[in-house]
Amino acid sequence: MNEKFIQINGISKHFGNVKAVDDVSFSIKEGEFFSLLGPSGCGKTTLLRLLAGFEYPTNGNLLIDGSDITALPPDKRPTNMVFQNYAIFPHINVEQNIKFGLRKLGLTDDEIKKRVDDVLALVKLEGYEERFSGQLSGGQRQRVALARALVRQPKVLLLDEPLGALDKKLRDEMQLELRTLQKEIGITFVFVTHDQQEAISMSDRVAVMSEGKIQQLSAPNELYKNPENIFVSDFIGETNFLKASTKSKDGEHINVTIEDLGDFKVKNNLNIPENSSDVVCSVRPESMMISRDKSDWDICLEAKINQTSYLGEMTRFYVEVSGINKVITVSSQHFDNQSFENNTCFISISLEDISLLQKK
Amino acid sequence: MNEKNNSLLVYTLIYFGFLYIPVLFLPIFSFNDANYMSFPLAGFTTDHYEEMWSKRNLHKALWASVKVGVVASVVSTAIALLAAKAFVRYKFRGQNVSYGAIMMPFLIPEIILAVSILIIWINLGFPLGLVPVTIGHILFCTPFAMLILIARIEGFDFSLEEASRDLGENAWGTFYRVSLPLYLPGIIAALLLSFIISFDEFILAFFLSGSDATLPMYMWNQMRFVKKLPHVLALGAVIIVFTTFIVLLAFWLRNVGQGKEKQDIAIKL
Prior knowledge:
The structure holds two protein chains of two kinds. By secondary structure, chain A is an alpha+beta fold. In chain A, about 20% of the residues lie in helices and about 35% in strands. Chain A contains eight helices and 20 strands. Chain A has helices at about 45-50, 95-100, 110-120, 140-150, 170-185, 195-200, 220-225, 230-235, and strands at about 5-15, 20-30, 35, 60-65, 65-70, 80, 155-160, 190-195, 205-210, 215-220, 240-250, 255-260, 260-265, 280-285, 290, 300-310, 315-320, 325-330, 345-350, 355-360. In chain A, helix 3 crosses helix 4 (about 140-150). The radius of gyration of chain A is 25 Å and the shape is elongated. Chain A starts with 5 loop residues before the first strand and ends with a strand. The relative contact order of chain A is 0.12. Chain B is an all-alpha fold. Chain B has one domain (about 65-270): MetI-like (MetI-like fold). Chain B has twelve helices and no strands. At the A-B interface, strand 6 and helix 4 of A face helix 7, helix 8 and helix 12 of B.
């Protein structure tokens, strides 16, 4: 397995004064499901378009499977793309759409037929060959776009928010299906999305982008459990930030003062320096416990429930802790909004679940 | 509420009356068995139509108009297609100025355009005839063709062209296999309308055609002789029917495929 199948070396793309992509370097492994995740305008789509050849970088170079593709036009690259709006050609039918990209590959008629049949079976579109784009549902169009790209057997498949236009249920199905498909055919996928849940659930690795830079590149669970900065912690899932300052180090731990709560010893994965006041503690809502009675956890605070929202599989509580001028979010699968008298409760935090992060 | 609708209906009827009743006299009198356009009608005849078959000058003028119309419509549609694509697809320096420059023949009085071309043409020492008429018609038709094509291309999804490049086609292949078929109804509509504009055009032809009369010039020449009026009426009636058919065809073509796109959007929503 090639660890550096796609190499992105010092890539920048400027549009006038805007640095859409700002000196980005990383590699993507062969056969990997790789996601570029970030809010709109973070540069993820520009980076994908640079890989496809629709844009050329201001600086840097791009390699796929060892060969430099930086200056190649889109039609000479070993990549194919699934567009956000699918871009199905409306004047030709599904079969002709799928065959569109095979013309210049020098295949025999039998080979073409076999490839088209195989890919139709792969995306479960048998029987739709004669249909036109206007006669297909959103999900079917997505399959045509996928088939049309995969039939060329590209080294890399680029996907630009392909699930954005689908409704939630179909989107969840397609997530699973895409993931299964990718493992089955083993082609490297580069997937662009602004939906953190989508990126986390499908990808082998995720690059979180903001303002043209990579904020963190790691496996989804790492991203969630060990965010490297405030942006990632905030963007992936939900979290509570508490102001803090560091004191002395103690091996892999560090002593901190959390504002309004007191002094604690927490883990220091990011090696944050001593005596810094520019730090925050991040605590995920579901890592806290809400209860009627006091607990013996590291931190246990009496709180008042301001609001609740019932989400079915869990309930989210917005609580106010006396002495902290901030609403804290706690989620629980065991309690709902009927569970507490007078809206008073206790929330408990284990020090292991606190991530210490540095402000920029 | 009802009264309001009625007054609008009356207005609409008067409007269409003013527009079309005078035009209707032409076919009516073209079947009238008399040399003068006056009531009462003298009787039904198709003589005036048969007379057209024997007029050699008429045939010559018709052929001249067709030649000029075909060349002018093809060239102006080609220019308009390139310009329309540039205006819709790209933002560039001098965009508004060049748009204005192309639209100018549409806005300035035609007679000024005609006189300007005449002066330049004569000073260059070239003879008058169908060539300067064609050049004038190209200038005059291009803005019309461009407006039609811009309307068509504006709704075009440019990611289709990117998809084609992505699927291995170069720029020409993309134009031929994706852009052209999708622009085609607009292109044909632009061709038909430019042809009709050129075919009916009088002022430029009047100044520039010299002795090579186009059909409108022929009609104008014939009108000076009372005896020749009736077959000009017949010719006019034929031209009205032909023009109406072409214009309807052009409008129908302009909207072809749009219905399908609406369906697309409906499914997406």
